[in-house]
Amino acid sequence: MRLGIRLLFAFFLINGIAAFFVLRVFMAEIKPSVREVMEDMMVDTANLLAEVASDDLASGQLARDASQSRFAQRVRHYATRPIDAGIWGFSKQSLDFRVYVTDHQGRVLFDSENQAVGADYSQWRDVARTLRGEYGARSTREVAGDDTSGVMHVAAPIYVDERIAGVLTVAKPTRTVQRFIDRAERKVFMGGLLLLALSAAVGVGVTLWMVWNVRRLRDYALSVQGPADSEHGALPAQPLAVPQVPGELGDLARAMDRMRVRLEGRDYIEGYVRALTHELKSPVAAIRGAGELLQDELPAADRTEFATQVVQQSERLQRLIDRLLELSKLEQRQHAEGSAPVALHDCAAAAIAHTQGRAAQRGVALELTGQGHSGPWEAELITLAIGNLLDNAIDFAPAGSTVRVELDGATVAVQDAGPGVPDYALPRLGERFFTTARPGGERSGSGLGLAIVQRVMVLHGGQMQVRNTAPGLRVALKLGR
């Protein structure tokens, strides 16, 4: 399972469980809370009415003819009052209190709905507890099994000469407040769904942010191994940028960068040593062999030949060391330092002047065409790159042929008339110490010339393109910036 799916699943699981219990608590508390508020108001109402009924109960009017008492008349007038009240979006058009009065024995003296006059209510919880001086209340269903038919009863004692002479009970159907309960539950439920949706959106956002940063770190870690030719000791073509991520992930990125620098430096040195050792073996062996032979008595012609071989191999070693040092310096740089405009034509002309003598020795003509643009390039490096291309072309060009340097805008191309290179070798040109056979069959090159050219292009934000032209090889440098 992928990291993003795991994080999202864990977030939804935790958020879902929390939302379920929170909603459950809220939904479970709405109904009893509303009924508790209703009971609190009924307590006030019952005690107020108990005071109003105390005079009629004390005079015996309620016991003789309750319907004619002032209290009964006031209650009947209350029940018939017209009302149209808007309560938080709901319309109330009826008065729902039922009021009944019992004597000190629990017998009903007055009932506002004339349902239980004369009935014995002494066993009902509201009456019995109140007569004992306790708080009396009960909730009774009018229809068994139907929770919506419940009626709440709250009683208050009627005092006569500081003794409990009777009980007044106020009753109210719970269905009258059910619509408030239903609305509150709907609001809580919809609010819970909205909160869950917002939490899910936040969870998705956090997960995507986390996965994005982790993937950046992953890509960075994968890039540490460098390009496919890293096994040859080459540095990455472009400097690796440390991902800018916050918090602990940022610390991890910086730790990975420090690790990359250490590993890269170690691989770089190891690759250099391995490749350099391989390249040094041939000239050193040739010099040693010639030196051992020169210790013997040899004809003058043989001595001259072996001495010449020592000089040639020494020069080869010198060129190898010089180019290694040049490439090493370039690979430690991150960008070119050119600022003032540099004419590409001037760089090409300087490179031709440097290689003109060697070309004449090989019987190869050099030709410059086009003008090229000017740009903020480092003249010395551009000249070096073109010079290396010319050296390489001179090595492969047959005697009597022409090596052309063609300028076109920000592109310089070197075209020779040699045999070209095998197609399989084209992608590896520019790789340090990779060489192909010269026309004579010898492998005298080190492969560092094109590696230097490749690095110069990287520093200038350009690229080197190589293709066979049959005959010859064309190497084009497209400068950036």
Could you walk me through the main structural features you see in this protein, from its secondary elements to its overall organization?
By secondary structure, the protein is of the alpha+beta class. It has 3 domains: 3-184, Beta-Lactamase, CATH 3.30.450.20; 229-332, Helix Hairpins (Orthogonal Bundle); 335-481, Histidine kinase-like ATPase, C-terminal domain (Heat Shock Protein 90). The chain contains 10 helices and 14 strands. The protein has helices at 3-59, 61-65, 70-79, 125-131, 178-223, 247-294, 300-331, 344-362, 379-396, 448-459, and strands at residues 85-87, 90-92, 98-103, 108-111, 137-141, 150-160, 163-173, 342-343, 365-369, 374-375, 402-408, 411-415, 463-468, 473-478. Strands 4-3-7-6-5 form a 5-stranded antiparallel sheet. Strands 9-11-12-14-13 form a 5-stranded mixed sheet, covered by helices on one side. The longest helix has 57 residues, at 3-59. Mean pLDDT is 79; it is low at 227-239. This is histidine kinase. It holds the Pfam family HisKA. It is found in: Cell membrane. It is a multi-pass membrane protein.
CATH C-level of the largest domain: Alpha Beta
Per DSSP, the total helix count is 10
Low-confidence stretches: 227-239
Number of strands: 14
CATH level-two architecture of the largest domain: 2-Layer Sandwich
CATH superfamily of the largest domain: PAS domain
> Strand pairing plus helix content: what structural class?
alpha+beta
What portion of residues is helical?
A: 40-55%
End-to-end span in angstroms?
A: 44 Å
Strand residues, percent: 15-25%
| Main sheet attributes: strand count, strand direction, barrel closure | 5 strands, antiparallel
Strand order of the largest sheet: 4-3-7-6-5
**Envelope shape:** rod-shaped
pLDDT averaged over residues: 79
Q: Output the CATH topology of the largest domain.
A: Beta-Lactamase
Order of helices and strands: HHHEEEEHEEEHHHEHEEHEEHEE
How many domains? The number is 3
CA gyration radius, whole angstroms:
51 Å
